[in-house]
Amino acid sequence: MSTHNVFILASDNSPQLLPLLHSKPSLALSQDEHGYSLVHAAASYGHHELLRTLIRDFQVDVNVKDEDGETPLFAVETVETAKILVEELDCYTSLKNDEGLNAEEKIRTEGDFVTVADYLRTVSARAANGSSPNNESDAQRQREEEPLPPLPPNVTVNMGTTTEDEVPEDVDPAFRARIEELASREDFQGEEGQKQLRELVTDAVRRVEGRDVRRRVG
Q1: How does residue 129 score in pLDDT terms, banded at 50, 70 and 90?
Q2: What is the reported pLDDT for 139?
Q3: Average pLDDT over every residue of 117-143
Q4: 204-205-208 Cα angle (round to 5)
Q5: What share of the chain is helix, strand, coil (3-state, %, to 5)?
Q6: What is the distance between the terminal CA atoms of the chain, rounded to a whole angstrom?
Q7: pLDDT tens, 157-204?
Q8: Cα separation of 137 and 111, whole Å?
Q9: pLDDT tens-place string over residues 30-77
Q10: Is the dihedral of CA 54, 57, 58, 62 positive or negative?
Q11: Which residues pair with 96 in a beta bridge?
Q12: Among residues 45, 48, 37, which one has the least CA distance to residue 70?
């Protein structure tokens, strides 16, 4: 099945999509030639369970950007979908597109979904007052912009090629898909690619350490 058909399945919320993604998790990270992702499609068409599954189960970035620098939040058409992205899935409301507009500003400018823009304005106001528990605070955003900490001293990263038989069977499919997608990117050796690799490995180490702690406590 072509990548193009994956976007059609997401737009239609087809029951064929999730079995396909489970059989090949890397497809969940697909973006077309314009940067349009499955998360953009699910947000635009209001497919809420698909949204939750892509973000929570397949670990797709809820703030993934298209070629115009727009996240899925820019594509929503209903307040309910916006609430799921902001309050459940913790997307950022303040990110700006290539025109320098955030989602609320872009949606309001287009004038089609004013109630969504109004909701996003209230979220921004609560965040400015420090009373928005599910959206990023100023301190949270500041931490995001700080340089990433170095990897733990006992951890090294060696990128290379392996055959399917050489990959351990217990590797998390979603984590494996993220590694494969990142390694295939043209900017992998650049600053952004290496930053995302460090984030991915650090997250994996923390998950493993958390499991070890639970085992010892248990």
Answers
A1: confident
A2: 42
A3: 69
A4: 85
A5: 60, 0, 40
A6: 45
A7: 565 554 545 445 555 777 777 777 777 777 777 777 777 788 877 777
A8: 28
A9: 999 999 999 999 999 999 999 999 999 999 999 999 999 999 999 999
A10: positive
A11: 102
A12: 37
Confidence of residue 91 (pLDDT cuts 50, 70, 90): very high
Q: How far is CA 217 from CA 100, 205, 206, 210, in A?
A: 49, 18, 16, 11
Residues 6+ apart with CB under 8 A from 167: 176
User: What gap in Å lies between CA 85 and CA 93, rounded to an integer?
Assistant: 9
Closest CA to 21 of 38, 41, 36: 38
pTM over 0.85: no
CA distances from 105 to 75, 102, 111, 118, 130 (A): 12, 5, 10, 10, 21
